[in-house]
């Protein structure tokens, strides 16, 4: 409705009111409700005010006429809401309250929404309910509160919100509902109310004092038990799913913004309680849960994540420090990662240590009494905790020493607390192993060195880290060594029992013969490395890169899935900004290398048009890739338009442009590791390795690229995979059906002969190289090849799984595959 329309409506309202013609006025209002789209614009408030000021007798007649004609507006929600709002505004102070049940149903409908527009004037309906002596449904209170968290929408319901004191928290989240069930006493209610006041970035001394007083009234143990229970429920599916409008994010996986303040308060409260391992676990989990990505929104709630980090920093003891160290390796959200780093730096400074040292010292043993093992006697039963590869396993032995499959009943009955702690420790070990694997993999570029004794204590002989360190190769005073048969030794078997400086071995500066020899050594001892080291890809400068001089085009002209690319980049320590289809600029994907004084850049740009090639929120589904460059770490940042175009350096008023560094001058280790990251980004997120894109994707635009990538030349990663398969295939049960030829693993089945590309895993089959689409499951199942020299190459597992399936193709039962054979 335009201002002219509003003026006209106000005019005929005044005219009909002056003439006392309430029937005509009601008819006009009902007709306007039908023809006015969604709402009545900025004049809505004036109309309601004017109608509400009519004399009581006229309002009484108008109410009757509106109620009588209500059925004429049909079943659409917007017209019904407008008429009910008119009735609520007009009927104040009257004895009659027509259509009260309809109003309740309309409010219930609003309770399924995330937030409300000010023009819906739900406040008028809510005030009418309250005036009628009825409480608002908790879902209605929740939507009004969520709306109130938006500064731009709060104004029209500000007065109403002050009246909505119950329930203390919004319903719809399992943790909040459990908290309200557990806090039915006045003291419990007071504690929950105090949690909702956690609106600052960190707790004040006054906030802490009030919280401690409430804890004292309730009892510390009781509060801890309740708080840990509530924290354990955070992030569960909503108990009251909300309707998602087309433009909204996936709100059902987001936090309720009103409850988020209480979650911050809950984290702060937990940090005030006496230290306990369960508290540190719960706070660490809260940080990670709060940073999980939600479609259309990004991280669920960084403010809650930050509160969890602050809470951990306030908890004394090894467990909290361990969680901070673990989060330092896991958190990729920049603002939260910065807070974690800051607290670890503070801890290191206070202890007179470096940041790296505090991370090493913060890794607990989790009850392991020797490297990778722990033994616990629980009555007549023995519990064994063993680290097997990348995970911990809890097993049981009875009094006779015989293995039993499940937890004995006597343990469940008589040692419930010890059992709970053991299971928690196993989960802690799994999470810490993952974090430590990533941290160790980053040590190549960190240029970390250790004295021999320190290294043995913190790595080789550490009960948890030792399970990783003993599967890696090291150099002691320049001599390579590995751990096998209970000791550290060289390739020739000479024991290494002392030394000066220890570093992590890398193949880039080693002779090929030495690299092959260590690979043989690993296979001989059946050691599976936690990540590629002896088999690590090495990216040396090519003739093409010598010709371009300052940039590499080795990974240019690819199409990659943006969100997958961005996630991988974050895990590998790169900074990247999502490209939106908007008039904006963004820097390239960037990795800073402070120990080398360098910054690596991977130039990317959004691909496609708004709509088909973007999400509903406007972020590109795919990116086009371009050059890799290196600059001094303090050089001004480059940027380019999100739509595409030339990258240019952003310069201050007195700054001069800085040229990219010659690739020939980049240390070989740095060049290799950076290009390895980029190869990973392309190899995992390229649309070319999607087996369902044989038609070329949207509009067939990617057909040529998909074919060239899916069956083209092998990257360094794929060549490494080929070299490993060359050694591995003779050990397989299907060895007589497999041969390696060029870029493919050939598998002879009964129906066809199949060619599996070693880069993409895509399949061609006889005759005429017909394409065969087999979509791997998220976790590869089926026959396993046995020993592998390293973990983490999912494509290798996919290729082997496909080979084993196709070698026995007469036993295939999947109808989708059979229809292609």
Structure description:
The chain has 821 residues and is α+β, with helices and mostly antiparallel strands. It has six domains: 3-163, no CATH class; 174-359, no CATH class; 373-438, no CATH class; 442-524, no CATH class; 543-685, no CATH class; 704-818, no CATH class. Helix content is 45%, strand content 13%. The protein contains 33 helices and 24 strands. The strands form six sheets. A five-stranded antiparallel sheet has the order 7-11-8-9-10. Strands 12, 13, 15, 16 and 17 form a five-stranded antiparallel sheet that branches. A five-stranded antiparallel sheet has the order 20-21-22-23-24, with helices on one face. A hairpin with a 2-residue loop joins strand 4 (381-388) and strand 5. It is globular, with a radius of gyration of 33 Å.
- Secondary structure: helix percent: 40-55%
The coarse silhouette is globular
The rounded distance between the terminal residues' Cα atoms is: 62 Å
Query: Strand share of the residues?
Result: 5-15%
- Model regions low in confidence, pLDDT < 50 over at least 5 residues: none
Strand order of the largest sheet: 7-11-8-9-10
* Overall average pLDDT: 87
Structural classification: alpha+beta
Number of helices in the DSSP assignment: 33
Number of strands: 24
Sheet of most strands: 5 strands, antiparallel
Provide the gyration radius in Å: 33 Å
Tally of separate domains: 6
